[in-house]
Specification:
Growth Hormone, Chain: A, about 75% helix, 19 helices, about 475 residues, mainly alpha
């Protein structure tokens, strides 16, 4: 691939291993979410119509509720023992939970024990997926230099989306197109996950992490705490704890937007298809597959562009589209007219159902996240505390936003209809815009990512970083 031309074989192998591992992690994580319409009936006690939305919201939220604890644990491991150790552990954890789910007896067989076991497995998977993605992103950010690090880190997210696509396809095969037992998909995730964790043994540790550990050890032994360091232009910024706390809080606030868009596109909109258009689980999966494919294409384009464009320009463009789309979505959903559907498959052909597909695809494509400028955001956290800061902000944002969205939208949609989404979309857009402005100002001050130099070729950026 042209954007990785010039990298040595070791770096290319690392990119491949991490991308493949992230793909598997997200495949295993999303497999249950996409098959939840069937698996919830197998592992949860029978419930009435009014209780079902709360049970579904509780299971969805359980995937993220323990992430802050996992972030502290993996943050400590990643900052003390390295990024390589973390991504090996997370892969092994995900494979183990897939093994348990693949062999777990149903509620009809062992009662409430099945419910507790599936909830615990979902919690472990949520913790594992966080450590995997953050570990992979940090490893590549600290190993590569601009402009290669922008598309490399973006392709980690692209691999996660690929995992979701394959999970959707596997779910469809098990539930609709073949007579495969649903457990086969989890067996596949388990087998490949264990193989992936073994393959990662060949990874070397992140270069920046190793150098910083050596520097820290030397500095401690010589007690040269007052010596000025010139090897990193951001070191003076790191040494002010107020700067780190403020940056961490703003980065956390910027993470609140994406989970809301994800829930809107992949939970709320499919719920409308089931309620108003009588979609079957297979029909819902087909819509979610197309929406995920749209996300895949958008991230691929962004990753390619980030090699030649300032990543902040791409973020500003998405930030300009987001408020327009999210303000119009409730209007569009409110005026949809039901259309005919195929009673056997539950697949509407025209009208409102097609409009829902367009809405959920566009909404998730323009959702606000830090890609492709993620390496720049990460660089404002000190190397030996970076894993903890980044993973905790990610984890807290998901642990707070998903439960609030899942349970809050039950009330908001009953009270305000589709316009209840404005209560969530508008404030999160405001804080994301503020955070983007904050980091843009930091880039102007430090200027080590060639900010504002329109004609700066990517190779010139690489030379500048090599000189640091």
């Amino acid at each position: 691939m042209g954007i990785f031309k010039g990298l040595n074989k070791e770096d290319k192998d690392a990119i491949g291993l991490l991308r493949f591992g992230t793909f598997l992690e997200n495949f295993d994580l999303m497999l249950y979410i996409h098959m939840a319409v069937v698996l919830n009936d197998l592992f949860f006690p029978p419930s009435d119509h009014h209780l079902t939305p709360y049970l579904s919201a509780a299971l969805f939220s359980s995937t993220f509720i323990l992430r802050p604890v996992g972030a502290l644990v993996f943050g400590w491991i990643g900052d003390n023992y390295g990024r390589k150790t973390t991504v090996m552990i997370t892969m092994f954890m995900m494979a183990s939970t897939c093994f348990i789910v693949a062999n777990l007896s149903t509620y009809a067989e062992i009662g409430i024990t099945a419910t507790w076991m599936i909830v615990i497995c979902r919690m472990v998977q949520g913790v594992s997926s966080l450590g995997e993605v953050v570990g992979a992103e940090l490893y590549l950010m600290e190993t590569l230099k601009p402009p290669h690090q922008y598309p490399a880190v973006a392709f980690v997210t692209l691999s996660a989306v690929s995992g979701s696509l394959v999970a959707l396809g596997s779910s469809a095969l098990c539930l609709g197109f073949t007579n495969l037992n649903w457990r086969v998909a989890f067996w596949f995730g388990c087998a490949v996950g264990f193989a992936g964790s073994i393959a990662r043994i060949k990874l070397r540790e992140s270069g920046e992490f190793v150098r910083e550990k050596e520097r820290h050890a030397l500095k401690s032994s010589l007690k040269e705490s007052s010596k000025k360091d010139l090897d990193n232009p951001k070191r003076a910024f790191w040494e002010n704890k107020n700067n780190i706390f403020k940056t961490g809080f703003i980065f956390f606030m910027m993470q609140l937007s994406f989970p809301i868009s994800f829930y809107f596109s992949f939970v709320y909109c499919p719920g409308l298809l089931k309620e108003f258009y009588h979609y079957s689980p297979l029909g819902i999966m087909s819509h979610s597959f197309i929406a995920t494919l749209a996300v895949f294409v958008s991230y691929f384009v962004i990753a390619k562009l980030s090699y030649k464009m300032d990543p902040f320009k791409i973020l500003k463009f998405k930030a300009a589209l987001f408020p327009v789309v999210t303000l119009l979505c409730p209007f569009a959903l409110s005026y949809l007219a039901p259309s005919g559907f195929d009673p056997s498959g539950g697949n509407p052909v025209t009208g409102g159902a097609l409009m829902i597909l367009m809405i959920q695809s566009i909404a998730v494509v323009v959702s606000l996240d830090t890609i492709p400028a993620t390496p720049i955001f990460f660089s404002y956290f000190p190397t030996l505390q970076r894993f903890t800061y980044v993973s905790v902000t990610y984890a807290l944002s998901r642990a707070l936003t998903y439960p609030i969205t899942a349970f809050g939208m039950i009330y908001l949609s009953n009270t305000f209809g589709h316009f209840g989404w404005w209560v969530l979309f508008i404030p999160t857009f405001a804080v994301f815009a503020y955070g983007l402005r904050y980091f843009l100002d930091l880039e102007k001050d430090f200027g080590d990512h060639s900010f504002g130099q329109e004609d700066d070729h990517p190779l010139e950026k690489t030379k500048k970083w090599a000189a640091l």
